[in-house]
Amino acid sequence: MNITHEEFEKEAQRRGLKLSRDSASNRYRVAFVQGSALVSLDNLEKDIASDGDLTRISRFMDTVMELSVSATDRITPEGLLWLLEPSDYVEKPELRVCISDKVDRVLVHLSPDRSAVPWVTQAMLASKTITEAAAGDIAFANLDRELSDAKVEFKQIGDVRLGFISATEPVKASLILSPGFRQKVEEVIGWPVLAVVPDRDFLYFWASRHEGFVGQVGRIVVEQFARAAYPISTEVYLIGNDGVRAIGEFPQNAARI
């Protein structure tokens, strides 16, 4: 057993929580007074491996316990967002739309302090009498709000402007889903654009007429995906008037691109 799992079990014991391992998904089932939750330590392990900060475990457990207590009571329209998520989860989100073979658009609820982004369920929406259609529209509007507060910047590489956006976690990569994305980037970068989003906090994009430029970002995409706490995909996306579409993918195990 590695140190993250060992310390997580000790933390649960200190708090009087019962744990069991789910063999199908290699996750922990944490039992609460009301109900239980399946918890993956994959991202926590990556974070601790990167900085050695074991105090993350206590903070992670705080988040787990917070999410276990009447999540439906905390849902607000202001917190609804669409986020890009990898589609290989054992248990699929209830409210998702397929973007590609590897990625879904998932309806989530962002906590006020941005520390938690639980997937939204039908029951959560029903508790607030919000329809699925209305929730989706609100989530897009909230993405536009996030985008309006962000700044589009670029780095000139030859005749290509490599664009990126200054935005806070966990929405940066998912801003490509915003209805206002074209208006925000067209004047600076052009339209349509190609984009890569290897993790939640990474977004590069450039004018699609520079299709050959894709080879210059391959290595960083693969490396970023491999070390990310919240990886999304090594796919390349074409973003245009018809929405977001995957047009290729970098091999995840490629040593060199």
What is the strand and helix layout of this fold?
Blueprint: H1 3-14, E1 18-22, E2 27-31, E3 36-39, H2 42-51, H3 55-68, H4 71-74, E4 80-86, E5 96-98, E6 103-109, H5 122-127, H6 132-148, E7 151-157, E8 160-166, H7 181-189, E9 193-196, E10 204-207, H8 218-227, E11 235-240, E12 243-249
Antiparallel strand pairs: 1-2, 2-3, 4-6, 5-6, 7-8, 9-10, 9-11, 11-12
Give a verbal description of the structure.
The chain is an alpha+beta fold and 257 residues long. Among the domains are: 1-69; 151-249, no CATH class. 32% of the residues lie in helices and 26% in strands. It has helices spanning 3-14, 42-51, 55-68, 71-74, 122-127, 132-148, 181-189, 218-227; strands spanning 18-22, 27-31, 36-39, 80-86, 96-98, 103-109, 151-157, 160-166, 193-196, 204-207, 235-240, 243-249. The model has no long low-confidence stretch (mean pLDDT 88).
